[in-house]
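ESCALATION

Customer reports they have been waiting on this structure for their group meeting. Please prioritize. Original submission:
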Amino acid sequence: MAAPKTPVTLPDYQLERIGSQIAEGETIKSARPHVLTDVVTNFCPGCTHGIVNRLVAEVIDELGIEGKTVGIAPVGCSVMMYDFFNCDMIEAAHGRAPAVATGVKRVHPENVVFAYQGDGDLASIGTAETVHAATRGEKITVIFINNAIYGMTGGQMAPTSLPNQVTQTSPYGRDVSKVGYPVRISELLSTLDGVAYVERVTCDSRAHIIQAKKAIKKAFQNQIDGVGYSLVEVVATCPTNWGMTPQNAFAWLRENMLPYYPLGVYKDVVADGFANAAEAALERAKDCPIAQQGKEA
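Update from on-call: job pushed to the front of the queue and completed.
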């Protein structure tokens, strides 16, 4: 492949693919990741799903795993993702993405399997699948979009909707005395021994997008390295169902969502000095004799 005749700012994995197509005098600063198909998505204008889709695609390209990646798209705003990614995709019933991902990974452990889920899907109808896949330590990667509302179905209150937040099914605001408090998924899952890595990120600025990509890449790399279950929660906007412009939606996210859902790493067994989640779990249970049985094996 001929090298481009002018300096470019593309990463090497993109240069290898399109370098010969760059004409003399052109400076290419960005290109569509190969794993993303050349189609118009169904995401609403201003929605951050598109940004996260791009980040996942860039990570798959950079790690060179497109040919062995299997994505799970459940019901929700991600329902059409099989049209957006060139890797293998499987459609799952509402909330069942972790169960489908578990099946694929156990049958094909050499594949890289990720589930891409919204908050209604993951934290409501799929709560059981989410918690049990995590506590079993399934070696899958989960991208969790938390926009505090049901998006595709029209803006109903979600498990992550904030106290007093107005939605289609809470027109006077979420009343915690009647329907309880929002579920903080990252905090919840970080307490489980089967979990290797949990980080909460957002995409409201360039700096936060860069951090989000680092987290997503780490979650995929953990799976490749056999570390254990990894989840990246993305605090996102839903301008359509929030009834806001994209700019105002980002402002509302910063003012209301980020204080309730603080960004950061909630669990990272590798950073804590362990090879994997199982090793960290043994250490946590070091004073429990029965939990140590079979340790040498």
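Sent to customer with the following note: The first strand starts at residue 69 and ends at 73.
Escalation resolved.
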